[in-house]
User: What shape does this take?
Amino acid sequence: MLESVEAVLSTCKLSPLIDGLKVVQAEQRSNKIAVNCLSILQYYLISLAQSVNLSLLYMYSHISKVRVRYGETDQMGYCYYGNYAQYYEVGRVEALRDLGFSYKSLEESGIMLPVLEYSIKYLKPAYYDDEITIKTMIKEVPGARIRFEYELSNEKGELINVGTVILVFVLKETMRPCKAPQELIDHVQQCIEA
Assistant: This one.
C-alpha cells in the first residue's frame, strides 16, 4: 500500500510525506492500532493527492525575511497595515533577482512594472522586532502581466497574512502594455516545470 501512496505523492511533489510515513510505519509495526491509523492516513493522502489541482503544485517560490522596525508599528504595537505592501515588494524584488532579473535592469531596458491589482487578507498581527518570512510565489508563466502570490508568517511559523499583486509589463516610451521579456518567461517556465 505504501508504494501506491508514494507514486501518487511523488507526482504531486509531496514525497517528503512518504519519508515520514515510512518512519512511522517502521517504528510502529508492532502496534496494531498505529498501523491501522497509518493505513487510514495513507487512504486520505491518496484521496487528497488525487483531488488536488496539480497545476497549483508546480510553481516558483522564493523566501525572503524582514524584521519589523519600531517606526513601522502603530500605537497598539502592531505592524502598521500599510507596511505589508513594502514587504510584498521586498519579496517580489528578491524573487525576480533570484530569477536573474532586477527592477533596475528591467527599467534600463525600457520596461516598467506598475501595479495593476493588490489584495491582502490579514490573519494575525506582526509586532515590533518580529522576523517575518515572506514566501513569494509565481504559479503561472507571465504574459503581459505577472502575478505574485504571498504568504507571510511570523517566527512561530504562524501564517499572518496572504496576498496577491498583479503587475503589468509596460514599455517606458509608450506607456503601453507589452509582453514580458522572453528570458524571464523562459526562467519562470523552467522553474514551474521543475
The first helix runs from residue 2 to 11. The chain has a mean pLDDT of 83.
